[in-house]
Structures are given as C-alpha cells and as structure tokens.
Amino acid sequence: MSEEKDKVVRIERVEVLPPEPTDADGALIEPWFHSRREYVEIRRRQTVAEQQKFAIFFEAYGCLRCQGKERPHAGNALCQRCRPWFVRKLEEGMEERSKGGER
Ligand SMILES: [Zn+2]
Q: How far is the CA of 74 from the centre of ligand 1 (A)?
C-alpha cells in the first residue's frame, strides 16, 4: 500500500469536457453547443486550443457572469453557480415566448 502511495504519476494532458448535457439543456445551449453527437464531431475536428477555449478563458478571467474563480468551471466559461442560472434564464425566456405564441 505504501508503494502505491509513493508512485509518481505524470499527467500529460487533461481534457476539459462540459457536463454531460441532458436532453433539455443540450438543446437550450444552442448555438454554443449542438446535439451531443454533433458536439463530439465538432470537437474531434478542433485543435486542443479550440477545445479548451472556455476553460482557458475561465482560468484567465474567471466566470463570464460573476468573474469569480473560487468555484470550478462548469462549462461555457461559467462557474458552477452561474451556469445553472444561465440555463434557467434560457428556459424562462423560452417559456415566456411560448406562452405568447411565438416559437
Ligand atoms: Zn459565476
């Protein structure tokens, strides 16, 4: 057990993926992200820098909304508190528009 504890692990690359979208928020965050299948295909074609752009932005400037860095990045350059806020506001806006008969 102590041998395992003393092992040195070298991390060559860390890939930052957004949270797995549910059916609901996968559609809500359009056009930032497409369906999971389209998203995977787009990511496969991107450079590493392109794949990490939101995480890099978050690391440099903090959360896009609150500018904080104390909470972890949750995706779309938003922290774990602000991304749910953003998704909720999108849902509310879509619901209001649907009540008005607009699509
Ligand atoms: Zn935030």
A: 9
